[in-house]
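hey m, so remember when u said the tokens were messed up on ur end? i reran from scratch. heres the input so u can diff it against urs
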Amino acid sequence: MENIKNIIFDFGGVICNINHQRVEQKFKELGIKDFEKMYSHAVQNNLFEDFETGDISPADFRNKIRELLDKNVSDSEIDDTWNTIISDIPEERIKLLESLKMNYRIFLLSNSNIIHYDVYLKDFQEKYRYNSFDDIFEKAYFSFHIGMRKPNLDIYEYVLKNHNLNPSETLFIDDSLQNIDPAKQLGIKTYFLEEGEEIVSIFNNEKLKVN
């Protein structure tokens, strides 16, 4: 990948550690026994898709969860349960991003929602002393901000167009194959980060070492 000039990173599972098993277990304890059929690494139903595109508000999301539970639970209890999916943002990954900026234009492209965003932004600010993700990336795109989400083609086209990126000079890194395939359709180079693989391992001396 000698001609790569731009790198677009996924967030959850690539930059930020996430734990699907933990959030599934916590929602089961709360009362949604088949949560994994509604939300998993590979599948999200309309409720979660709509929340990730900003089509429904946090209040709407919480009310829908209460309907599924068929019992009254507090906003904070729902948020705390939902946020158990978030783990941490390891320091070595932040150091990697800081170093890559010397050789590449770097971007973030994440399917996310406002409840999660508020939690990991606060952690990012407190731990690394940045004001926002735009301080480390040339631009950080979150689905709920722009009303689009992966794997729909329009979100990739949006980023390419906004920054005048040549697809053949752009690498997209994601840990979900369903998000990799549409990027390939647009001519973007891709790298599938497999489970247990560390993003730091595919770089050496601030340069890509993968073919």
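this time it looks ok to me. The longest strand covers residues 105-110. if urs says something different then somethings off w ur setup not the seq
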